[in-house]
């Protein structure tokens, strides 16, 4: 939420300063959706820089010690037989520890991968905690720079850009895809004209709660202020409710930040 509240110029400066960093790109395949309950079945870690490209990538199957549900096997292609002969997390994860604590931790929907890594390392009595300033979620970056695409799922972005990475939902391919997306989007930010890039950032759709945070008020007051200013919105279905979405630039104008 902190980055959602940033004005467009601050966002541009934040992402541009990442350009010289080492990126540690991670992807996990799992037995389910909850890091505290489910387990990792495959891990891939890729390290790269914008200057040198990929400098290292390692991938491991892990024995989760629990059954893999049939729907997850169909989704990832990782079978029970494959992981039953794989090493355990206790055997594998300590070898990934140094790399995962270097550079900018990067993933597509980072909260998902990060939660699983934190939970798995906690089971081994490691405390895995990376500062927010050293985290990069390419879903958030895609929402910022590709605001009008109908989907920003990784397979759809792979198809959109024509990345040649192999089968989706396997850790090695998804890690490479995430890196190629990071490279593409950050290069756009670094090489683009300031005004053109700022206009692009201001096209991002943000939910009412984030808009209210930019306006530094409650959602009720924020909606009233935006309505009074004649700011248009669109409705997006989220679960059983609809959420109002506004263009970042329109909100910043009302807030006096543009």
Detailed description of the structure:
- It is a single chain.
- The protein is an alpha/beta fold.
- It is 48% helix and 19% strand.
- It contains 13 helices and 8 strands.
- The strands form 2 sheets. Strands 3-2-1-4-5 form a 5-stranded mixed β-sheet, sandwiched between helices. The protein has a 3-stranded antiparallel β-sheet with strand order 6-8-7.
- Helix 8 (154-161) crosses helix 9 and helix 11 crosses helix 12.
- The longest helix has 21 residues, at 171-191.
- It is globular.
Give the gist of this structure.
With 258 residues, the protein is of the alpha/beta class. Helices cover 48% and strands 19% of the residues.
Strand % is 15-25%
Strand order of the largest sheet: 3-2-1-4-5
Order of helices and strands: HHEEEHHHEHEHHHHEHHEEH
Low-confidence stretches: none
Main sheet record: 5 strands, mixed
From the N-terminal CA to the C-terminal CA, the straight-line distance is 19 Å
Q: Percent range for helical residues?
A: 40-55%
Mean pLDDT across all amino acids: 95
Number of strands: 8
Computed CA radius of gyration, to the nearest angstrom:
20 Å
Number of helices: 13
- Strand-pairing-aware structural class: alpha/beta
Shape: globular
Helix and strand topology:
Elements: H1 2-5, H2 8-17, E1 23-30, E2 40-49, E3 53-61, H3 70-76, H4 80-84, H5 89-100, E4 104-107, H6 110-123, E5 135-137, H7 138-145, H8 154-161, H9 171-191, H10 194-201, E6 205-207, H11 208-215, H12 219-228, E7 234-238, E8 241-247, H13 248-255
Parallel strand pairs: 1-4, 4-5
Antiparallel strand pairs: 1-2, 2-3, 6-8, 7-8
Helix pairs in contact: 7-9, 8-9, 11-12
């Amino acid at each position: 939420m902190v980055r959602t509240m940033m004005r467009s110029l601050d966002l541009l400066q934040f992402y541009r300063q990442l350009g010289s960093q080492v990126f540690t790109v991670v992807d996990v395949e799992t037995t389910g959706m909850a890091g505290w309950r489910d387990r990792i079945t495959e891990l891939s870690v890729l390290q790269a820089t914008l200057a040198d490209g990929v400098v290292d990538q390692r991938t491991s199957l892990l024995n989760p010690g629990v059954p893999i549900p049939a729907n997850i096997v169909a989704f990832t292609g990782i079978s029970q037989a494959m992981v039953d002969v794989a090493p355990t997390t206790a055997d594998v994860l300590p070898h990934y520890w140094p790399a995962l604590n270097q550079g900018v931790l990067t993933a597509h929907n980072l909260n998902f991968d990060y939660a699983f890594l934190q939970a798995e390392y906690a089971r081994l009595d490691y405390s895995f905690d990376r500062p927010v300033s050293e985290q990069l979620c390419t879903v958030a970056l895609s929402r910022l720079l590709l605001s009008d695409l109908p989907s920003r799922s990784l397979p759809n972005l792979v198809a959109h850009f024509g990345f040649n990475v192999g089968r989706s939902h396997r850790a090695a391919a998804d890690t490479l895809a995430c890196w190629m997306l990071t490279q593409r989007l950050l290069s756009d930010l670094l090489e683009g004209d300031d005004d053109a890039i700022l206009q692009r950032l201001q096209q991002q759709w943000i939910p009412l709660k984030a808009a209210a945070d930019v306006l530094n008020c409650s959602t009720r007051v924020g909606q009233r202020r935006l309505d009074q200013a004649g700011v248009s919105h669109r409705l997006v279905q989220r679960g059983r409710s609809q959420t109002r979405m506004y263009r970042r630039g329109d909100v910043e104008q009302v807030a006096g930040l543009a």
